[in-house]
Amino acid sequence: MYPKSLEELIEYFKLLPGVGAKTAERYALLMLDTSEEDIQGFAKALIDCKTNIHTCLICGNYSEDDTCLICQDTSRNKRIICVVQSAKDIIAMEKTREFNGVYHVLQGVISPRKGVLPEDLNIQSLMRRVDQGVDEVILATNLTLEGETTALYLAKLLEEKNCLTTRIAHGLPMGGHLDYADELTLIKALEGRKQMKND
Questions:
Q1: Which residues belong to zinc fingers classed as C4-type (predicted)?
Q2: Residue 150, Cα to own-chain centre: how many angstroms?
Q3: CA proximity to 86, closest of 142, 129, 47
Q4: Which of 6, 15, 78, 83 is the most buried (most CB within 10 A)?
């Protein structure tokens, strides 16, 4: 139906998460109406991202330098490390503007059925960082079977270290309804309950 190069572009847009056939078609047709200058800029941004961005040597976050902007920030509390599954999780945490510590990216979670074992994750460098003097390690893996397994595994390793190990609270989201929540979410909501105080 479309010329080969346009069909090819549509197929590439379909690789993006949440982009179906119709949206991919719309994006591809939009590119035809976009100026040559903007297309060149778009292509350059894609190539630059792939070429210039790698993982921070300290924490595993996205970075264009050897160390990421968070690890370079002298105002951050380096004695509190928040452990996350992927660099994308750091972006979500930073949007809250509540956390002023540093991060450590595991690059995944333990999942024997997918062939991912502890030695496949960025765990040894976390232990080296903890040995350099850390007050608290916050385990912020997702509330999935694999995320919980990984958190429990790390908590066991950290028992031998001289630091506090905590787990982020999980429970019902704002606006959530009990009758829509799964059992694990409700269990975590009960475990993370807090006393209500009248000030």
A1: 56-71
A2: 14
A3: 142
A4: 83
For residue 68, how many other CB atoms are within 10 A of its CB?
24
Q: Are 153 and 118 in contact (CB under 8 A)?
A: yes
| Cβ neighbours of 29 (radius 10 Å) | 13
Helix, strand, or coil (residue 180): helix
> Which CATH number fits the domain 72-173, given the four candidates 3.40.1360.10, 3.30.457.10, 3.40.190.10, 3.40.50.300?
3.40.1360.10
* Cα gap 112→121, rounded to integer Å: 12
Q: Is the distance from CB of 83 to CB of 154 less than 8 angstroms?
A: yes
CATH class of 4-52: mainly alpha
Q: How far apart are CA 11 and CA 19, in angstroms?
A: 10
Q: What is the pLDDT of residue 185?
A: 75
Residue 78: its pLDDT value, please?
96
